[in-house]
Amino acid sequence: MDFVLSLWDYTSGRGEQVGAALAEHLLYVISVVGLASVVAIGIAIATRHNVFARELALAVASVFLTIPSLALFTIFIPLVGLGFAPSFIALFLYAILPILRNTVTGLDGVDPSVMESAKGMGLTRTEVLVRIQLPLAWPVILAGIRIATMLTVGIAAIATLVAGGGLGDFIKSGLARLPLPNSLEAIWLGTLLSLILAFAIDMALKLVKNVTISRGIR
Amino acid sequence: MSDDVLIRLENVTKKYGDTPDAAVNNLTLEVRRGEVLVLVGPSGCGKSTTLRLINRLIEPTSGTLYLNGEDVTNINPSMLRRKIGYVIQQVGLFPHRTIAENIATVPKLLNWDKKKIAERVDELLDLVGMDPEVYRDRYPKELSGGQAQRVGVARALAADPDVLLMDEPFGAIDPITRDRLQNEFLRLQQDLKKTIVFVTHDIDEAIKMGNRIAILREQSEIAQLDTPEAILADPADEFVENFLGSGAILKSLTLMKIADTELHQVPVFKAPVMRDKAIETLQDSEDSTSILLDADDKPLRWLDLAALNRTSQPIEKSGRPISVDLQPEDTLQDALTAMLQSSVGLAAVTDRKGKYLGCCTIESLAKLLVEQGAGK
Q: Whole-model pTM?
């Protein structure tokens, strides 16, 4: 109980700092997931008739995800310096795989008879993609975007190590000052805010899902 | 090329990769305007491939495709397909689109205006026997298999194409519904007069649906191409004979309509019936059974003497009920089934409104079959 009170004290004295860190964190999530979605869905579409290119893209995206995050955030510093840029690149590379994987699965999963009848009625390849395949694959693609979002919220905490800001700032400062007063409070604050942010974004995506998925395939 | 040929495949061959045997080997086939041509054959004979060559879902390795006298082998395939309706066994409705949107697919591609599309959708739903008010805004997952295929047919007819390609359209539907859909489809075709190429592996379906039948063997080679009557009467070779199987005479029953036979008139009574008078009439007639009609001349019950003599029950409840609804355009096979079910060896025939016309008898059926046989 004492700890909860002291966590509250610690937080309420730092409203501005909390707001700034949340905003930085949110900016990472939105920009990273936004660009990764465009790129990953684009790759999946571009390679949909080419098994080799598709498998290659998936393999490369998988490799990104296996690089330890501590390393991935730092190896771009010589190229782009400290701060937002190296963090953005690292998070972007991580977010590709879930979206790419799900888009490929979703496009592949469209009932062949639906594709056959669409083609048979005279839809062009582009029309089949835009009017049939993408809408039908959308629930699966959106699930991939949600995974990528959650992943980004969690890993964005590492950005603080390359001076990239975000909620990781609280955790880092707490870690540095352990076991001094307010150090544990800082770590908890950063963690809880991450969870709350993740939850809020997830709710928002659920809303997107309900609005954008046809009643016929819900 | 004569005027009445709408589709012509000329020396068409389809080879896949390096396989030595072609899937379709040097096929020349003409489909006449307004006919139902059925392609039938054992599985793997290339009948579906042949069908898909017509709308170029499969591109021929060599050969020429003519539609309405025009060489369409090299035109934009999407533009060609918009002029050809296509119905497949798995239907392939778009699950994320409503029934109305599904049917509107091709008209939308052709940029019809919204009002015209909406009217056309309702018209088509009516045509395939589905209430537009009820089904327009539903999604495919809410339909039964039979309903889905009705929508599939409506969707294929949407832009009023001259040609309809149907790949085992009723193959995945339960036998009772299939029979009904086939009959409805034949009735529809009488009015629409589309040029239809219909693929099936079921010879009975082929005989029932086709104006002409092409029996195919491997590599889509035509073993025999003729009217169902001619093929049943005179199979070209052993392959065709085997494919037809036994019971060719029974099969020919599906080709003949009740209207082809002479209807037999048994005594009929209309409520209210005077019992004594009815018994007298029936005793005087050659028949052992009479029919009770309702006020609208709709046949209700079979009445024999025993039923008329049973005074413990009102006449309206005596005898056996007439449950089967037969009309002159139904086949003799339907009539035979009804006779066997009725237990009096008769089948009552009505007009479309249900008004009694007469009875089909085993004798009239046998007579017709003998005449057919003698005519050969």
A: 0.80
Run of H or E including B36? strand B36-40
C-alpha R_g of chain B: 25
Cα distance between residue B4 and residue B14, in whole Å: 26
Pick from B292, B195, B213, B312: nearest CA to B254: B213
Task: Tell me which residue of B104, B82, B83 sits closest to B93, measured CA to CA.
Answer: B104
Residue B130 has pLDDT above 70, yes or no: yes
Instruction: Tell me the per-residue pLDDT of B345-373, one tens digit each, with 9 for 90 and over.
Output: 888 999 888 889 999 888 888 887 777 65
Amino acid letter for position B131: D
Interface contact B12, partner A, CB < 8 A = no
Task: Report residue B294 as tokens.
Answer: 């309702």
**Residue-wise pLDDT tens digits, B271-313:** 777 788 888 888 888 888 888 888 888 898 888 888 888 877 7
For an interface test with B, which of A115, A116, A121 has the most B Cβ atoms less than 10 Å from its Cβ?
A: A121
- Determine contact, residues A187/B67, Cβ cutoff 8 Å: no
Cβ distance B95 to A216 less than 8 Å, yes or no, reads yes
Write the CB contacts of A170 (distance below 8 Å, at least 6 apart in sequence): A21, A186, A187, A189, A190, A193
Encoding tokens for residue B282? Answer: 């029936």
Q: At what angle do helices B114-127 and B145-157 cross, to 10 degrees?
A: 130
| 3-state percent helix, strand, coil for chain A, nearest multiple of 5 | 85, 0, 15
Does A111 contact B at CB distance below 8 Å?
yes
CA B109/CA B161 separation, integer angstroms: 14
Can you give the length of chain B in residues? 376
Q: Is the ipTM of this complex over 0.90?
A: no
Cα(A138)–Cα(A136) distance, rounded to whole angstroms?
6
CA A162 to each of CA A22, A189, A191, B228: distance values in angstroms, whole numbers, following the listed order = 17, 20, 19, 82
